[in-house]
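Fold this complex.
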Amino acid sequence: MTQKNKLLLIDGNSVAFRAFFALHQQLERFKNKSGLHTNALYGFHSMIENVLTKEKPTHVLVAFDAGKTTFRNAFFEEYKGGRSKTPSEFSEQMPYLRELLNGFGIKHYELDNYEADDIIGTLSAQANPAEFDVVVVSGDRDLTQLAKENVRVDITVKGVSELKEYTVESIQAEMGISPMQIIDMKGLAGDASDNIPGVTKIGEKTALKLLKEYGSVENIYNHVNEMKKSKMKENLINEKETAFLSKRLATIDQDSPITIKIEDLAYTGPNTEKLIDFYKEMDFKTHLSRLDTTEHDAENEANREAIVYETVTEISPEMFSDKMALYVEMLTDNYHTADIVSISWGNVDHIYVGEPELVLNSKDFQDWAKNPKFSKQVFDAKRTFVVLKRYGIDVENIQFDILLASYILNTKDNSKDLSEVATEHHYFEVASDESVYGKGAKIHLPEDPAVMQDHLARKVKAILVLSAQLEQHLAENNQSELFYDMELPLAMVLAEMEITGIKVDAQRLREMKVEFAERLLAIEKRVYEQAGEEFNLNSPKQLGVILFEKMGYPVIKKTKTGYSTAVDVLEQLRDQAPIVADILEYRQIAKLQSTYIEGLLKVIHGHNGKIHTRYMQTIAQTGRLSSIDPNLQNIPIRLEEGRKIRQAFVPSHKGWKIFASDYSQIELRVLAHISDDEHLKAAFIEGQDIHASTAMRVFGIEKQEDVSSEMRRRAKAVNFGIVYGISDYGLSKNLEISRKEAQNFIDTYFIKYPGVKTYMEEIVREAKDKEYVETLFHRRRYLPDINSRNFNLRSFAERTAMNTPIQGSAADIIKVAMIEMDKRLKEEKLEATMLLQVHDELIFEAPEAEIPILEKLVAEVMENAVDLNVPLKVESDSGDNWYEAK
DNA sequence: ATGCTCACG
DNA sequence: ACGTACGTGAGCATA
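Structure:
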């Protein structure tokens, strides 16, 4: 027996309206880049997806209301009158609903003078029960009148994702009437939302009672005279006409003059290209990414143009030329250890793919790679450079990097997956790595080598196409210098730093490990005694139960999932709860033990005793670097116990030292520069202690000796607040003062530093206008939420607008310094090597004899990296290990 | 996978 | 009234 067809009929307007109100509280969260609200679209999308998966229809239609007036208004002018105006946030979404449906490949239809339910009613009546099961989806319960043998009506319950199914049987069971009698009920009870009057004083309950007795409106009036005298009887008689009118209004037309046939509604699945365009336009990121790796690939695989490439078995010099793209494939992230699985290169005329053994050992390939006369375009220059260096090949003249360029054009566009970056730029000819190799632990080479070869050739093609395109974009955005003079050269400097790595004294770490293990055991024992039981001290959940339930201490703060046991909470309990001192100590040591001692021991390379981090150049939204595997930018320093970890970071040669230089107050100096505030500038030009100076102005103190340490502390917090994009709330929390007091501080600060105030106002205004902010070197950060009507989103964007030019420009400055530093070390033929960058400091190792030279050279380079209207100041130190170089 | 906590600038 | 200070990454527990 063949499967019966299934016709899905959706009431477009009503479902969209439900979706709109279901996500109404989050209206401002659902907004695309251009400010269009998308909540109704999002909700509608979820509903469609759910219902398609569940019902697997063979035919689908979404019906829409045609316009304001319908045939019903012809005999009752006020039909659907009195409705409040449709919110503009809703109506602006309706045109895009059609785009969504086109993406899904779903037909939609509207008919002049008729409502969506008339179209649905007519089609459901036309569906032959022998051929079709029909499912109707609406947010309007009136449509339940259409239920019959082969027609089920699903009405949205909460939101739109949950549907309640109405069949003839369920309607009978729930209300005691047949679907057709729902019309009679409306005739009697009316419907306020549609402005159907009904009979005075008769509501749903009374209507049901009457219908159970008489069956229909007609029959009620046949017997109305037999009823005993009552107010209701009077109303019925007086309003007979209204009752019949109401019934007529409530009756869905099952024979409207539609011009479509059920056969036209055959559903053949989505149009992925259109759907992707729609997701992009709406900023539906999750839907987009899901599609990229699944249906999109599947469909594109069929749609993609075949790519021509050559699988090389022998390499010859003619295979290489200037301006070629190069891609080196590895299956895992860490290019310091990953194996190369394949290499591809080429230009628009010819793309080659080869096995790593063959290519890496080829003299022709090596010569080409190392020859600065031949420029190369890549995806991720640093990754490419580092991995080939491991095989003894120094790649020269990497002239373009589409990952770096993408990140500069939009800091959000920074995926490690080439196809994702390509998709962002509307290039769809590359499959995702996930679809080719799988993901997680199951990552593997495809069985058919041709699949990977094809994939790589496509990557090379994408690099070629996108290089040209992105280069153009950079120029349009005035970001060419940022790319060519800063980020690309920096990638090479970072590559060398990573390859050099930093030597770690594993023995020292192991000694600390033993010591910490003993202490942890002792603390644990004390805690269990005080708690009266053993539990997992690392579990905030279990700890919460012990502290706040078993021991009954007051709950100070809650998290989403339970009690907060964070440091600031425990600090407040310190006096009344002797156990917390132990818990805090445990936390501190446990953190050092697991993250730093054990964590670092795990990533020391066996052959050289060094650690090789990876700097992420395209992650941070401000332009800063980040460091992973391990993170060497958060090695403890604030507390002495943790700080000792730094003793394990040592020079890699005997007789060498660790040398460290850091910018003093670089962010406040940057602020002084970009705000051009007279007083802030003066403080730096005069070389004052900046926090003391702020304290003097804010607290009205004449002499610096009169600034108490408490005043300085507060002034320091205000300065931090200024850099972060000040808010009274944040400052009040930080200083543990009231919001009012915090606001007073801020007000006073702005009076004393009017230039800063003007800058803050200007930058926010500018951000609202352009929807992005820029650093000194034209690094951009887009702030789509800056014009949001949602307070939180908008406030966050405003603080970001204030902070990003400051933090980002500081990041720019140290990047310039690093490039110059690298150059100078080579020029001066010094053995000293740059090892690490920690946002505002650079760490080197050098022979002891070079230390005096570095003292001068590093400071000079860092201080003169850029010319601001305040001086930059650098402080340096050196020692036998990182701890000593404070 | 996600949330919490905590390390850094 | 709203409810957060800016930027990161790692380990652990828990779902």
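Residues 5-265 of chain A form a domain with the Rossmann fold fold (CATH 3.40.50.1010).
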